[in-house]
UniProtKB/TrEMBL annotation:
This is Ribosomal protein L13. Belongs to the universal ribosomal protein uL13 family. The lineage of its organism: Eukaryota, Rhodophyta, Florideophyceae, Rhodymeniophycidae, Ceramiales. GO terms for molecular function: mRNA binding; structural constituent of ribosome. InterPro entries: Ribosomal_uL13 (IPR005822), Ribosomal_uL13_bac-type (IPR005823), Ribosomal_uL13_sf (IPR036899). One of its GO terms (cellular component) is cytosolic large ribosomal subunit.
Amino acid sequence: MFLNHNKTHTEKKAQHAKWYIIDAKDKTLGRLSSKIAYILKGKNSTIYTPNHNQLINIIIINSKFIHITGKKKEQIIYKRHSGRPGGLKQEKFNVLQNRLPNRIVEKAIKGMLPKNTLGKKLFTQLKIYSTDTHPHQAQKPVILH
């Protein structure tokens, strides 16, 4: 009987969700976001498969204390549109950080995830809190530095 040794072996889906917690206090936005997207996709795992969800949940605390380098606080403009004529709203980094500090981290990480259904699912596994309190103590998250 002929055996085909050229088949690609893929690991089974992870059974148990892993929970990690990251403190964003005094961290740079882009460096932290790329690290989180890398872990969320499961690329640090030995059984990484691009089309599988590794069931990794990440909790980010102290998102209001994140900082960016250079003059970007005055230069970055966050835009959103209502879909109506003349419905473009623009906001600078400082204003958005005071109003909704989690939105800045969300937009940075979402832009680094895949633009498909897997990326949407991965984004739901990200929990962001502006202070150091969170309701996920029962999951026993592992602290990442």
